[in-house]
Amino acid sequence: MNGRVARIELRRSVAPWAGALVPVFALALLYLIPGPWAWDTVRWTEQWTSLAMWTRSLLVFLWPLVLGLGALQGLRDHRSAMGELLTSTPRPAWHRAATLAGTIALTLVAGFALLLVVGGAQVLAGGAYQHLGWLPISLVAALALIAAAVLGMGLGRTLPSPLTPPALTVAAFVFTNLLRTAEGPAIPSPAAPNRLVLLSPAVSQVREVLLTLSAPVHLGQTLWLLGLAATGFALLAAATRRGRLLAVAPVLAGSVLALLVLPSDPRRTYVVDTAAAAMVCEGRVCVTKLHEARLHDLAGPGEKALRLLHGALGARAPVEIRESTGLRDLLDTPERSRTAVLVDFGDGAIGKAKGEELTRALLGQGLAPACAPRSEREGGSMSDIVAQDIAAAWVLGDLKPLPGTAQDPDRQTARALPVWKRFRALPPAEQRARIDAVHEAALACGDSGALDQLPGGASR
Amino acid sequence: MTRAVSAADLAPTTYAWQIRATGLKVRVGGNRMAVDGLDLSLGTGVHGLLGPNGAGKTTLIRALATVVRPTAGSLELLGESAGGRGEHRALRRRIGYLPQEFGYYKRFTVREFVEYMAWLKEVPKADVPGAVQRAVERVGLADRADDRMKALSGGMVRRVGIAQAIVNDPAVLLLDEPTVGLDPAQRLRFRELLQELGRDTCVVVSTHLVEDVAAACTDVVLFAEGRLVFQGTPDELAAAGGPEHVGDSPLERGYSALLAGSGRERGSW
Amino acid sequence: MRWLTLYSRSRQMPASFAATVIAAVGMWALGRGGGGSGAASASGSGPGDPQFAALALTAGVAAASVGLGGQDLALDRTAAIRWVPRRAAHVLLAAAVVAAVALAVRTLGDEMAGTEFIVRDSAGLMGLAALGAAACGGAYAWTLPVLWTAVGLFVPPPTNTPTRVAAWLLLPPGTPTATWTALTLTATGTAAYALAGPRGRHVA
């Protein structure tokens, strides 16, 4: 590749636009529009894997746009009526194609890297779990962008009509959008066949932070995208009808190989990052490697809560505090345990609390573990949290609402106060029995809720 | 990148004519022979290619530029057959070509465009900046070299077209209607440039304008219906016509005389 | 009539029209064929999922927007015709055609979307395309409507006015924010294009 010519293309082709479009649109969306990417534990700058997955999920619309920009570039020779002059020159067409594709690949990678640098600086500052397992996710994303640009250029050159760029963009957009994967289920599940869905470079939005993509997915998608890029390049360089027909071969080969490699089952697509999910403990308090940075703040209040729980429940008290790693569907009942207080940092009552407040939340969670899940996407239920308020108050002696959730603290107090007053009026043994009942009901998550076990707590 | 023609540059020429066509036929479209059995030999000098519209001038030039492949007959350029398959890579490095419809990248500056074309013509990397500057100066666009192409007037665009054609110091220079859009002063300057180039290059200029031929060409090729009608000096062309023939100048009268003689000029235009 | 025929041909209207019809029928078929649950991660699926209608209208507008450029700008600019009303009519007519195609496809059977939804979205999107043509030229006019649709489909269900504006395309008919956004886009787009015309081409 000739440096001077590459510099000309860098200035005069769509390369700078393509390079600017990726970070500008991505950052505008991530910062200006409030969405799940800005929510605490699943925030795009919270963990390396989240950063990689969120930026990759943006390909839903970045990928079609880059394809369209490529097609615009592919129309250049036709619009400029340069065909005649180009045919008379000695340099093989693929040199020209390579220079153009090279510059656009360069700016696209630079643009995407800028996006990762902006996010990565914040991930670094935030004390995330340091690892490199996220890198393939982003490398495939960069490859997808390059493949889109090159394929767009090839198709634009092959079908030189002003309709080609918008038609390609909209078609690609329909493709990525129909093959979007719903993040609601425990394992993000598509409606279409899994292998087909994996041909779309976009991934599900982040809900379960422990999930990452499996190696066969990376491999299969790489093969498919390389096939796409090779076809695009061949179309860009082809001079004859036969060359254009032959250009279809790489994408066919790529898709066949990819379909052989790609997993058919969503459960082998999105897999738990076992290294990140490994437990690190301080005393009896354990969190995942992913959230190790939170361990220190949790350990003190956690130990205190365990002591108080032992005092309250005796032998039946949970003996450890552990971060919940079970995957569950959206709105599904969280994991239960008799021996451990299971915490989920997505639950604002625990995730956002510190010190005494955290001890109170852990007591509530230990005595009356919530049945309705609480996370950035799930609001939990008022009766769950009121039961926790009262259970914690029983141990600590004073009633205080738990902040940080979707349930308004004042409304919690309004709901809890009458129950608390009647509960306090009971003899101590009866109080103890009621709390035992609350504990059992919360663990069972049956028809009869935790709060129903308290006087006046039954829902009207 | 090294230039593969260096050996050819240094060796004594092994060909008598830069362009040599024998029985050349070129088909365009379905089955129309735009060039139909042409025998032509052109050496160093400026050759004016004259002929009525549809005579096949553009097709001939495109064949000479290796853009279209001859259907039959033989075509030798710089001693190398240009008829067969293959990329003619070494040959194309030594050809300069300005198509009739000169397309260009509008976002490029003049210098960038000529440089890009120099790269496509595989001019040795080290020579490119100098060659580009020289070509741009020769067409008088040095002061507009860093302007975008889309900001240029039609005549300037045409001159960029000439600059890109000469940037590789071609041994065969093919110019299809180069003076379209040039104002009279530019045309004068262009004729001087042609004469200068014709000293060591085989220049083929296709044109409608007989006066361009008179002023700048060492040789006239008159072409009609795909066949050679006349080849000789401008003076010989002028001598062919008499007062009874249509035209405002001796050359024009000679032109009409020869075409009328070949019985090929039809219609009033 | 002859003027109209030439004008429409010079702006690739037959091809654009064909693309519009294909897109509308294609999205109708996809929307009917149980595709509704496929993409409905954030917005939630169900009958009358507006994304297919929105995509069909976006495709139609993108195809129609190609005609906003014209073949030869210099010629268009110098031609002694009063361009302002004609250009405004072009934009509004294109929106009407896109809406009409969607409405016609609806008669095939399945309810893709309500009439108000189709009219509102096609008008707003076409205004956006006209704005794009005035700002960046006819060849790039499609980028604005496509981008806005892309963002609208990506963001979670809106909760406040800025996000409602961002997702106006997908909101149910009768939502004031969406209606006003569409009206504003139609008006500004048509006015900008009528007065300024398409901007000269950049990449060539």
UniProtKB/TrEMBL annotation, chain A:
Keywords (A to Z) from UniProt: Membrane, Transmembrane, Transmembrane helix
Domain of life: Bacteria
Coiled coil region boundaries: none
The protein's name: Membrane protein
Segments passing through the bilayer: 14-33, 53-72, 93-119, 131-151, 163-180, 219-238, 245-262
Keyword presence, Transmembrane: yes
